[in-house]
Design a protein that fits this description.
This protein is α+β, with helices and mostly antiparallel strands and about 700 residues long. The chain is about 40% helix and about 20% strand. The protein folds into 2 domains: about 130 residues, no CATH class; about 375 residues, DD-peptidase/beta-lactamase superfamily (Beta-lactamase). The termini are far apart.
């Protein structure tokens, strides 16, 4: 008996599985062969979806993110579609946005606006005036901006379950009416009893409820789809705020309207964002397929290209060092109240720009609130007369041509000298010197000595050395064929064809020509680098999102030969060292490092009178450390510093303290090896005949 029951159970399971597989086989045969789902002229819903590519990041030299993109959403409402169901929609969406329903409700409510205007028409010789009345309403109301993708995902998942209170009432009323509908026997009995009118009225009521329910269900679907529309927005974020704003630049929205569901493309408008816009953009993907009845026909899928995110741009900027510079400039604004101030930090051996900052500045996260002049990268776009810092070039050219050396004696005429032609050359107040060496004259920033040395060479030689040091031409730091040199100014000489003795003499001490802060900084870096001018390097590499290097940018020499001989550069470094120890730059001396530098103070030209102003100056200090083996070259330029503190408009007093602050903190941050302490303790050991002790 037990064996028979077991056999029956086995046969039953076998027949059950066989029947199930038979049904499945018949269904597959029907779907795949006999009646497959195919789009026809009415059903075809060709679907073409663009897969947006995320814009690449901008990184600093250490890999810290300085600019990145994130996807957020703006939520727009169409009050016309929502209609009288604003309360239900507001109740649903408000908690997702962290708001109350009362805050959201006014944005969802239809509020038509009546606009009237008088229309004048000519009818023959008569002029007829009519009052035109029109109704307007906003069909795209911004409910919330910068909504996170997770919130949008919750909204999309839950909106399909949104039910209007009226729809629930109609659905329940219809269900109840259907339940009360009499069966065939009851209908026959009612007909016999003469209650046919009641049956017809009940049937009409059921039909009316069904129609109202279906109509509201369609409206409910429309509200779910088009009542509230999340619009994707690619938002560019700058985590470090103001830091290196002029280097990074900013983005703007493309004017081309994208397909639905695709964010508006970001376009680089300035700085690195503009220079490497193509590399940062990436390549959008594309999916071409067909969808029927909510399902994709995978067998009919066409092109399926994945999006390739934009490449990352790694800069030479060191963000901690950049922060040091930014803070120093903020303190300088409080101390000397300049119209503008600029700082550049360069590594002389490679030309790498480690920091570049300007004041006034702007926050690229809120660029729309920044005035246009705050967005200017003054380090490369605003030239000025360099003043006495240009004497570096005059001395370099004269010494390199063998027309003098820093030990040669020169008569500085006690601060006033009449050249062979033109106006007299005067030194700044307090700089009147007699017969001194060129080194002392350089340290005290004598205009007379510089003019005498500059006039020993021909105009062609002088201009030739200017070009060898990178003046009168763009460095190419922001150049691309798309950005038209990135706004970099080449500097120059107004009316160079009118060169004469007077103009050449004035140019020898930094007047009558224009140079950008970057040009002056790179020229000083060339002296620090044994006379070899390097091209400024701002971008180190282009990388994929996973860190693979696509393009590498290394140090590049500017020109085929050094600007000056190494022996000439050594003499210049010695003279610039004297500026700090015995000259106009004493305020920049550091306890642990030899510093070499040059001060500069230039009268600005009054745009109205076209004469030098006695109230407005450009102050500069450029220097490097350690003096003999430089690791850093730093330039600080202040435009129109105030005269608070007595003479603070001079380059040494206005910009020297800023240079000193940056140099001290930068040397500590980069752990540069001290030079002065070692020399001091070595000399002490030799004097006492005892071995030198290491200082920790």
């Amino acid at each position: 008996m037990d064996r028979q029951q077991t056999n029956r159970r086995i046969w039953f399971l076998a027949w059950s599985f066989g029947a199930a597989f038979t049904v499945l086989g018949v269904r597959l045969t029907f779907v795949q062969s006999l009646a497959p789902i195919r789009p026809d002229a009415q059903d075809d819903t060709g679907h073409r979806m663009i897969r947006p590519a995320t814009r690449g990041d901008v990184l600093d030299a250490r890999g810290n993110v300085m600019a990145q993109s994130r996807l957020v959403y703006d939520l727009y409402a169409d009050p016309v579609v929502i209609g009288t169901n604003a309360g239900a929609v507001a109740t649903y969406v408000a908690p997702l946005l962290g708001k109350s329903a009362l805050e959201v409700l006014p944005m969802l409510t239809l509020t038509p606006e009546i606009r009237t205007n008088w229309v004048v028409t000519n009818v023959g010789a008569l002029r007829v005036t009519n009052l035109a009345v029109r109704w307007y309403t906003n069909r795209s109301v911004l409910v919330a901006s910068n909504v996170e993708p997770a919130v949008v995902a919750r909204y999309r998942d839950g909106i399909t379950n949104l039910l209007f209170p009226r729809y629930v009432e109609l659905r329940e009323a219809y269900t109840d009416a259907r339940r009360r509908t009499p069966g065939p026997v009851d209908r026959l009995q009612a007909m016999v009893q003469g209650r046919g009118g009641e049956l017809k009225e009940h049937s009409r009521q059921v039909s009316r409820l069904r129609r109202e329910r279906d109509a509201l269900a369609g409206l409910q679907r429309e509200v779910r789809i088009n009542g509230l529309t999340p619009v994707p927005v690619e938002q560019r974020v700058y985590p470090l705020g103001l830091a290196a704003a002029h280097v990074l630049g900013y983005t703007t929205n493309d004017v081309v309207r994208p397909p639905r569901g695709v964010p508006v493309r970001l376009i680089g408008a300035m700085g690195i964002e503009n220079r490497f816009d193509t590399e940062l953009q990436g390549v959008p993907g594309l999916l071409e397929t067909h969808r029927v009845k909510g399902r994709e026909l995978v067998s009919m899928r066409g092109r399926d290209l994945a999006a390739r995110d934009g490449l990352n741009v790694r800069l030479t900027i060191d963000s901690p060092l950049q922060s040091i510079v930014e803070q120093a400039l903020d303190d300088a604004v409080q101390a000397i109240d300049p119209k503008a101030i600029t700082c550049i930090v360069v590594r002389p051996q490679t030309g790498e720009i480690l920091a570049m900052a300007n004041r006034p500045t702007f926050d690229p996260n809120y660029v729309r609130f920044a005035p246009v002049d705050h967005r200017m990268n003054r380090a490369i776009t605003v030239p000025s007369e360099p003043g006495s810092t240009f004497k570096m070039l005059t001395y370099a050219a004269g010494i390199d041509l063998g027309l003098g050396n820093i030990d040669e004696m020169v008569d500085c005429e006690h601060g006033r000298w009449q050249p062979p032609s033109g106006r007299p050359v005067r030194d700044m107040e307090g700089h009147g010197l007699g017969v001194v060496s060129f080194e002392q004259a350089f340290a005290k920033s004598s205009n007379v000595a510089a003019a005498k040395l500059g006039l020993r060479m021909s105009a062609a030689q002088f201009i030739g050395y200017m070009k060898r040091f990178g003046f009168l031409q763009r460095s190419g730091i922001m150049y691309s064929s798309r950005s038209n040199w990135g706004g970099e100014h080449p500097g120059g000489i107004p009316e160079p064809e009118r060169m004469n003795v007077e103009r050449q003499g004035r140019m020898s001490y930094g007047y009558g020509l224009y140079a950008t802060p970057l040009q002056t900084a790179m020229a000083a870096a060339a002296i620090a680098n044994n006379g070899q001018l390097m091209k400024p390097l701002l971008v180190r590499s282009i990388e994929t999102q996973d860190g693979r290097v696509v393009a590498q940018y290394g140090p590049m020499r500017a020109g085929t030969e050094p600007a000056i001989r190494p022996e000439t550069a050594a003499q210049l470094r010695r003279a610039m060292r004297s500026v700090v120890t015995d000259g106009t730059g004493k305020i920049t001396a550091l306890e642990e490092f030899d510093v070499a530098g040059k001060t500069g103070t230039a009268h600005k030209v009054d745009p109205l009178t076209r004469r030098q102003s006695n109230e407005k100056y450009t102050a500069t200090f450029v220097g490097f450390l350690p003096a003999e083996k430089p690791e850093l070259c730093i330039l600080v330029l202040a435009d129109e510093p105030s005269k608070r503190g007595g003479g603070s408009h001079f380059g040494g007093k206005a910009c020297g303290p800023v240079f000193k602050t940056i140099a001290q903190q930068a040397a500590s941050y980069l752990a540069l090896q001290s030079t002065l302490r070692t020399n001091t303790f070595t000399n002490l050991a030799l004097t006492t005949n005892q071995p030198a002790q290491r200082v920790n």
